[in-house]
Amino acid sequence: MRKKIPDSKVIEQTLGERKLVLASNRGPIQFERGKDGKREWRRGAGGLITALDSILKATKAYWIASAMTEEDSQVAKNQKLLGLPEDDPFYWIYLLDIPPDKYDQYYNEISNDLLWFLNHHLFDVANEPTFGSQFRKAWDNGYVAVNKQFAQTIAALTKGDDDPVIMIQDYHLYLVGGFLRQLKRDAVLFHFVHVPWCSPDYFRILPTDVRQAILESLLTLDIVGFHSRRYVRNFILCCQDLLGCRIDLRHGKVYYRDRVVLVKAYPISIGVEETRKMLEIPEVSEGIEKLSEITDKYKLILRVDRAELSKNLIRGFEAFAMLLDTHPELLGTLKFLAYAYPSREYLKKYSDYRRAIEEKVAEINSKYGNSQWQPIDLQIDDNYYRSIAALSRFDVLLTNPVFDGMNLVAKEASVLNSRDGVIVLSENAGAYEELRDGVLGINPFDLEDTAKKLYQALTMTPLERGLRATRLKEIVKRNDVLKWLRHQLRDIEKVSKT
Amino acid sequence: MRKKIPDSKVIEQTLGERKLVLASNRGPIQFERGKDGKREWRRGAGGLITALDSILKATKAYWIASAMTEEDSQVAKNQKLLGLPEDDPFYWIYLLDIPPDKYDQYYNEISNDLLWFLNHHLFDVANEPTFGSQFRKAWDNGYVAVNKQFAQTIAALTKGDDDPVIMIQDYHLYLVGGFLRQLKRDAVLFHFVHVPWCSPDYFRILPTDVRQAILESLLTLDIVGFHSRRYVRNFILCCQDLLGCRIDLRHGKVYYRDRVVLVKAYPISIGVEETRKMLEIPEVSEGIEKLSEITDKYKLILRVDRAELSKNLIRGFEAFAMLLDTHPELLGTLKFLAYAYPSREYLKKYSDYRRAIEEKVAEINSKYGNSQWQPIDLQIDDNYYRSIAALSRFDVLLTNPVFDGMNLVAKEASVLNSRDGVIVLSENAGAYEELRDGVLGINPFDLEDTAKKLYQALTMTPLERGLRATRLKEIVKRNDVLKWLRHQLRDIEKVSKT
């Protein structure tokens, strides 16, 4: 086996003297005022932060993000770079102070209620979206303004650096690249999109000038990255249809004005070691201990997601009910644990969805359960350690999103699980492209398919479970988050030379 | 100008001795029992029937369709070909008698509630569709069974004909080709799809075996035709993604097993002369006369569509309200006539939509109208002649579907209108590809865009109105329905020779 080059080395080799800048809506840490009145910070959750944070060590990179908490805003008002960790910093944070009403327009109205829905095909198009004057205000005063603020900040921070490498993250910041290109002609600009990219037919839903602005901004960059080849193709076809670009699907190139833009899939992953180490956290061990009350008696079907429209919880429960219908011998022998993080409940569609989830679970529990045994245990709250514990102990993991950018839970589960648990995975999760040989793939709209695969997973021979689990661990190990970054850096190096 | 070859000649040249067979769910005529107890028939409405009926003259073709009325079923039970017209027939009808419950599964549950929604992107995917046992029954006992019945009937009727040309129409009959190929190895099989075809991401919503069955059936044919190049590309990409086919996007070819299938756009059109002649119908003249009460006093904005989710009536009215808001000088000077044919009201989504349309109109009329003047006149009923009359007299036609296969109304309007009326047309209507140089294109989700284009249309100089109207008439005349058929026949001839 080839000796692995340490993370920091890879980055140093690529960057040389050049400055690395990261931009994302949410930063890696959040500040709070402690009980003693002192400022404290804690690491944020979420796959992206875990991934990026773990590889920024020793880069001396700048990470630009929005202030999220009140204390963040206080920090932001100082307009200073903050080294992390404070005593021996290896990268620096810069927080942007954005007024709440502007942030609401940028983050809620445009990023989450529009672009997230668009990217995940979540609109009921006969009735939504409708672009009127409220949208226009949110776009101009919110999204465009905040994106410009990000770009101006990055330009100011890299003043004097000739050709910094700037890595812009996700759907909140589609316009940063375009503004930045005007200010930093020679920078290497890379945008990574962490959500799916939809087909041109669906992308056309956006107002003409808005969709053009987004595509034109992304096409002033050097590289645009996605999780999967499906999204790459969709993006390239959008450029052809909506800007009339010459394209090269085979080589992932879009020709726009005087530029050639590389469009490519870099499937994000997890830090395998960092993930495994989470099992050593006391709260996780306690969680595993507590779970044994269930796992000693029952087979454990698990799901862990946000209570989010795209995650498809209701069809998951309906498929489980179909499983109980078709295989009554399973009654009383298994337990479906559903851990759902509350999500965007200020939106009616989401609070309605949460209510529908709860009603569906109550209906199934009352139909199939009894005083001794309830088939589903639904917990809608935020308990990260409990989720990690459960991921290490499931017999079957159900991850059935209607559409999903990557779905890192499937990769975390592959690494964490110690019982040769079987993963039943939607073919519309980005992770499916990589994991297909180890998981049981399903069409997430198809209850029969889902129920059958759950049954297949529950009744699989130990030999096959073991083979699949091993295969999954190998795939994820081979394609860990460092490889994700390495591939990006390698391509950044290539485009820098040309 | 080149002398036009008569329709019948074109068809004869292509077909020679070969039998032409048409298959569609709805046939060109329906039988009823008259008041005197005698059997009567009347021609059906709808663009497809008008188009095909007008070009079948002198072909001696067979047209296979479902029995729709009770009297149709009586006719169907005789299992006989019926010549039309009865005294000197130039083509023959054969009606299939399908039991009502089976027809309901095939037509309502699968064709309209599933495939129509799919093709037009109408699902609220977080909540629908869900494929369970009811779907499976409707698919197997309804859609598959009826498609097989069509295929077997066609095979029986063409027994002895070596290489008939069989033209299968639309989304109700996707599986006919596959069944028929097993029975008629040497037939030339052509399927024409009259609705949009969606992207692979969206087509994947269908259960795995169902989407495969549809694609595999269509790929046993010689030619698959669509209205626009967008749909052609979507279909070809579906074949690549879901069947792993080798494809050739540039030449519209899909390689599947031992076949090469031609996939091509043939934009359907209208018979220009037949359409113009409708103005001579007394009921139409009366309608025009009656309309002058409005057109003498007001500018006339018109819409004519089914009250169908894809037609986007509510956003159309909202855009009109925005127009009145931004241009109060228009109050009292114009009238928005909305003629909507009732559609699928047995479905809750449609009856809800109708109610929402009525509420929106009431709201706008109460806000902007007064005792002398109401801005919108909404008529949800079925009055074909009144629509034709209005199409000849509008100042502005609003046709803003969210997604629409072709939209023949835009073409009919181009031919019928005698006042240089301006057409405001959704870029997601199939017709937009051809008519874009004559219409004002809109993003149908964008109220501001729609309101602006309505204003532009209302205030356009007579010179520009005239130029646009002339251009539209020329485009439609050049690409009439005969050309649609001629292109198909030319390609049928080509594939027959190879």
Short key terms for the protein model shown above:
Rossmann fold, alpha/beta, 18 strands, homodimer, 498 residues, 2 domains, six-stranded parallel β-sheet, ten-stranded mixed β-sheet
List the helices and strands and how they pair.
The structure is a homodimer of 498-residue chains.
Chain A: H1 7-15, E1 20-26, E2 29-33, E3 39-43, H2 47-55, E4 61-66, H3 70-77, E5 82-84, E6 91-96, H4 100-119, H5 133-157, E7 165-169, H6 176-183, E8 188-192, H7 200-203, H8 208-218, E9 223-226, H9 229-243, E10 246-248, E11 253-256, E12 259-265, H10 272-277, H11 282-295, E13 299-306, H12 313-326, E14 334-341, H13 348-368, E15 376-380, H14 384-391, E16 396-399, H15 408-416, E17 422-426, H16 432-435, E18 440-442, H17 447-458, H18 462-478, H19 481-497
Span of the ends, CA to CA of chain A: 32 Å
Radius of gyration of chain A: 23 Å
**Residue share in β-strands of chain A:** 15-25%
Largest interface, Cβ cutoff 8 Å: A-B, 48 and 48 residues
Q: Under the CATH scheme, which architecture of the largest domain in chain A would be assigned?
A: 3-Layer(aba) Sandwich
Helix/strand/pairing category of chain A: alpha/beta
Give the overall form of chain A.
Answer: globular
How many helices of chain A? The count is 19
What do these coordinates show?
2 copies of one chain form a homodimer. Chain A is α/β, with parallel strands linked by helices and 498 residues long. The first copy, chain A, has 2 domains: 7-269 and 482-497, Rossmann fold (3-Layer(aba) Sandwich), CATH 3.40.50; 274-479, 3-Layer(aba) Sandwich (Rossmann fold). The first copy, chain A, has helices at residues 7-15, 47-55, 70-77, 100-119, 133-157, 176-183, 200-203, 208-218, 229-243, 272-277, 282-295, 313-326, 348-368, 384-391, 408-416, 432-435, 447-458, 462-478, 481-497, and strands at residues 20-26, 29-33, 39-43, 61-66, 82-84, 91-96, 165-169, 188-192, 223-226, 246-248, 253-256, 259-265, 299-306, 334-341, 376-380, 396-399, 422-426, 440-442. In chain A, the strands form 3 sheets. A 10-stranded mixed sheet of chain A has the order 5-6-4-1-7-8-9-12-11-10, with helices on both faces. Chain A has a 6-stranded parallel sheet with strand order 15-14-13-16-17-18, with helices on both faces. In chain A, helix 16 links the parallel strand 17 (422-426) and strand 18 (440-442). The first copy, chain A, is globular and about 70 Å long.
